[in-house]
Amino acid sequence: MNHIRNIYCVGRNYVLHAKELNNTVPGSPMFFSKPTHAAVTAVGQTITLPGDQGSVHYEAEWVIRIGKAYSSGMHADDLIDGMALGVDFTLRDVQTALKKKGYPWLAAKGFLHSAVLTPFTDFPGLAESAQTDFSLEINGLNVQRGNIGQMIFDPQTLIDFCGTQYGLSEGDILFTGTPAGVGKVKSGDAFCLRWGKDVLGTFKIALT
């Protein structure tokens, strides 16, 4: 995996996903971050996740990598130098408790191995990327399917917001939000992330 500088993540960026968790649809992009220690590349191995803190949920996402420093007016096609698929793992019971208290989400979103990524591949541009769906299969069953054209806030909007508010530079990556179909992980589950028909990464889960 190339050096990752920052991991930015976008919450509630698909309408049906927001509704399935009984969340309001945001009026502007809702960002959070994960430590770089959360990142792990999916190359067919078994990845350990905490199994003693309540339910663990999967959230499959389209991930973009920034190739140069952001400045206002730059187009996404000129900034993105790679793409991948990822799974934002979430300790859902922990997140629910934190939200009720008004606390930050780090404990629910930033634990080790909570940002699983396929190897990065060439980025064909936004227009061409919108012609292909991404999907997640677990144990051979399709559980999530999405398309960047379904996003509430499109990639350009996400980049402009993040770049203006937090800064973006070479090595930063963005998890751009998950479509509907998130669910609970079981120990032994086999994950397969597809771009169209192409498999970009696989792994298994062990809850410990």
List the helices and strands and how they pair.
Layout: E1 7-11, H1 15-20, E2 30-34, E3 39-41, E4 46-49, E5 56-58, E6 60-66, H2 76-79, E7 80-88, E8 90-91, H3 92-101, H4 106-109, E9 115-117, H5 126-129, E10 134-138, E11 141-146, H6 155-165, E12 173-175, E13 183-184, E14 190-195, E15 198-207
Parallel strand pairs: 1-12, 3-9, 4-15
Antiparallel strand pairs: 1-2, 5-8, 5-13, 6-7, 6-12, 7-9, 10-11, 10-14, 14-15
Structure report:
The protein contains six helices and 15 strands. It has helices spanning 15-20, 76-79, 92-101, 106-109, 126-129, 155-165, and strands at residues 7-11, 30-34, 39-41, 46-49, 56-58, 60-66, 80-88, 90-91, 115-117, 134-138, 141-146, 173-175, 183-184, 190-195, 198-207. The strands form three sheets. Strands 2-1-12-6-7-9-3 form a seven-stranded mixed β-sheet. It has a five-stranded mixed β-sheet with strand order 4-15-14-10-11, with no helix packed on it. A three-stranded antiparallel β-sheet has the order 8-5-13. It is globular and about 45 Å long.
